[in-house]
Write a structure and sequence with these properties.
Layout lengths: L1 H24 L10 H14 L55 H4 L3 H15 L6 E4 L4 H15 L2 H4 L17 E4 L1 H10 L5 E3 L7 E4 L3 H4 L16
Bound molecules: zinc ion (ZN).
Zinc ion binds next to loops.
GO biological process, one term: proteolysis
InterPro entries: DD-CPase-like, VanY-like_core_dom, Zn_M74/Hedgehog-like
GO molecular function, one term: carboxypeptidase activity
Length: about 240
């Protein structure tokens, strides 16, 4: 009797001891525990500790699936485009640049003989209160091409644009052999005194465009071309 009563009271304790051991070891309890209600409760509690034991109740979006494709850029944030607009490194000149501003590629990349003559002329012109500004000097092929395309647009045809802007292959600006000097007062000073320094206007339609003609200091500047289309160098 005593033993029988002890056995009845000991049985549940033994079962609970077993359950505790199983929980502690991480074993899934559903179906192991004899009492369905106790097993379900413990299984529910254990799911928080061992979620992998209940894959069917996991959210669908967490189920393993095929590999996802790499994330595509959002339409609102396209990748940065390569720089297409010429800058100072291409010879673009900001306002107020003189022949002494050698930190700018447009000035620094000019033919040294041309730059030397321009500086000497600028020093002498300054004594007469005339300041030379470089409106354009050396240009990269990219910059020259942009100017040519703009001229085609502005003048309406490639033929008319050629009267004003040479190609990257033929432009004396790209080779560093030409500078456009302003304002008109400075260009007028060069028209009168430039030959003394070997500085000559080359095209009749471009009173600002000067190149070096070393013989001019002795024999004067050569006759001008009406416009660049008459220049055999740019044909
Ligand atoms: Zn020019």
């Amino acid at each position: 009797m005593f033993n029988s009563a002890l056995a009845r009271t000991a049985a549940p304790r033994t079962q609970l001891t077993l359950i505790a051991a199983l929980v502690g070891s991480g074993v899934t309890l559903t179906g192991v525990v004899g009492c369905p209600s106790v097993g379900a409760a413990l299984a529910s509690a254990s799911s928080a500790v061992f979620p992998a034991a209940l894959p069917l109740v996991a959210p669908r979006q967490r189920e393993p699936g095929p590999p996802r494709p790499p994330a595509m850029p959002r339409p609102s944030s396209p990748p940065p485009a390569p720089r297409l607009i010429p800058g100072r490194a291409d010879g673009v000149v900001p306002d107020g640049v003189t022949v002494f501003d050698t930190e700018l590629p447009a000035v620094a990349n000019l033919n040294p003989g041309l730059l030397r003559a321009l500086r000497q002329a600028a020093r002498d012109a300054a004594k007469e209160d005339v300041t030379f500004f470089v409106n354009s000097g050396w240009r990269s092929p990219k910059y020259q091409n942009q100017l040519l395309q703009e001229a085609v647009t502005n003048y309406g045809s490639a033929k008319e644009a050629a009267r004003w802007v040479a190609t990257p292959e033929t432009s004396p600006h790209v080779s560093g052999d030409a500078a456009d000097i302003g304002p008109p007062k400075a260009a007028a000073w060069l028209s009168e005194h430039g030959a003394r320094y070997g500085l000559c206007q080359i095209y009749r339609n471009e009173p600002w465009h000067y190149e070096l003609r070393p013989k001019a200091s002795a024999s004067g500047c050569p006759p001008m071309y009406a416009d660049p289309t008459q220049d055999p160098r740019v044909r």
